[in-house]
Every structure is written in C-alpha cells, then in structure tokens.
Amino acid sequence: MLTRRQLRIKVMQAVFSFQRQRPDDLNDLEKFINSSMTQSYTLFLYMTQLLIKIHEVAVDKHTKKQQRISKSVEHNPSRQLIDNRILLKLRESQDIKDALQQRDLNPWHLDSKYVENLYFKIQESKTFVVYAMDEEPSLKKDLKFLTYIYEDIIAPSDELLDYLEDINITWTDDYPLVNSTMIQFLRKVKPTRDVKLPDLFKDQDDAKFTMSLFRKTILNIDELAGRIEERTPNWDKDRIAQIDLVLIMMAQAEFLYFSDIPVKVTLNEYLEIAKDYSTPKSANFINGILDNLLKEFEKNDQLHKMGRGLI
C-alpha cells in the first residue's frame, strides 16, 4: 500500500523535526515514523468503512421508504445501490471486521452526519439517477458507479477532508495515496471471493528501508549538511528552504549508503517530492546541487551501486 515515495515523505518529516529540535534520543522520532505508517492504514480502514456506512444508510432509507409506499400506489424504489455487489461484499467481509476490531476502531459511529451528507450528494447526482434506472445491472456497472462516486463525490469532499485532518494531521499527506489504493482495492473485489485487504507494505524490505534511511541521514547529518554548505557559500542559510536541505541530505544518503537503489530513481523521487512540499524553484535548486554532488561522488569513486543500470 505505502509506496517508497510515501515512505520517503514520512522520513522527511522526521528529519525536518530533528533539525528543529536536535533531540539526544531518536526513539520518539522513530516511534513517530512507525506510528505515521500505521496511521496510513487506519485511514484506509476509515475510507473502507465509510463506503460500508453509506450502504447501511441506503438500506435503512430504502426499508423505510418501502414501508411508506406499501400503503400507497407508488412503485417500489430502486434497489440498485443496496444491491451493489461490491458494497454487499464489503459489508459481509470478515477481514474488514477483524481489522477494525484488532485496532479498536469504530469509524463514523459518532459522526454519522458526514456519512448522510455524502449519501444525499450521491442521491442527487445524475450518475446515480442513470444507475438507478438501469434495468440490466452487472458487476461491471456496479464498479463503474462505485468508482465514480468515490472519485467525484467522496474523495473531493472538503468537509470530509477537514474532518479527517482534525483526527490526524498526517492524513493530509496520506489522503491521495489512500484514495488511489481504494480504487485499486475496489477493482479487485469479486462476489465469488473473500475480500483481501492490501498489505501496509508492498515489500517487507520497505519497512527496513524507511528506518535505515532515517538513521543513515541522522547519523551522518553534519557531513551531509557540510557538503551543501560547501556548494552554497554565497547563500544565506535562511534563504534556503529547510525542506530543500532535508531532501538533499536524504538523497545523498541514498546515493552513498543504499547500493540497490538506482541514482536516477533517487533523483526523480526527491525532485517530485520537492514539487509537492517545497517552493516553486526548489526542484531546480535541488537538481543543481545533487548533480554537482554526483559528479564529485563519481570522481572520488564513492558510488558503490550493485547491479546493472543502477548508476
């Protein structure tokens, strides 16, 4: 679930915090990284449960509406939403129930207004009207509808994002990744198979990479920072964004201490992170410094990358 870029961002946040506080003990920052990774999964469970709660609201309102119209000549209301095969599968999933119970989570129980607000927005959408009138339902149409309401109604909701930020500020960074993961997850849900939740890490080595990157950066921070100062003698420290300094130090650590990560991958990753988290000119600044450093590392035979295509 968590990509290497997302893991680098979590390390960036911890290194940035270290730069400001300079604590003697790194345990708290390492706990922060571990907690941040775990909380990413908690957000995924929140969003999964949100879909389930929306379905529960739909079933409840459908039942009440049926009771009302049983005394009149009105036609029965559409069952498309409550019969959505993917939502039904999510509701019956024991894996989801177990994951919530293990973490002692009961999302939306006390905040049902957010669920109802989203339900009404879905009901008001043109896509729902077309979906509800379709007389030939299918799994493909169920997925198409569910993907639409998630991408166009749920994920862009400012009210929802504000609520999630109040619960956990780090979820602001995790939100886009979790939403992408959710779409991929929904596409894999099949009525004939048990629901399989995604793993927190795509590869078990990712957890080791995360803590190793943090430690290698912190333990060598003076040396890594010194190289930047040598290449920016005419720059006032206050003029260089602190995030830029952190990203350049982390990139150096990857160049020098991670033999299995290609140089181009490291460069691309940190330039992309800079575009999202620093100033408009940061990517060019970082690219210039790292290019200069790479030339020095190559000249001094300091790059020890293993395998073809790693430099």
Can you describe this structure?
The protein has 311 residues and is an all-alpha fold. The chain has helices at residues 4-21, 27-69, 85-92, 94-102, 112-124, 126-133, 139-154, 158-167, 171-188, 205-219, 221-231, 242-257, 263-277, 282-299.
Topology at a glance:
Layout: H1 4-21, H2 27-69, H3 85-92, H4 94-102, H5 112-124, H6 126-133, H7 139-154, H8 158-167, H9 171-188, H10 205-219, H11 221-231, H12 242-257, H13 263-277, H14 282-299
Termini distance? 27 Å
Net shape:
elongated
Count of DSSP-assigned helices: 14
Residue windows where pLDDT falls under 50 for at least 5 positions: none
Question: What percent of residues are in strands?
Answer: under 5%
> How large is the radius of gyration?
24 Å
> What portion of residues is helical?
over 70%
Order of helices and strands: HHHHHHHHHHHHHH
Strand pairing plus helix content: what structural class? mainly alpha
For the sheet with most strands, the description reads: none
Number of strands: 0
Averaged pLDDT? 92
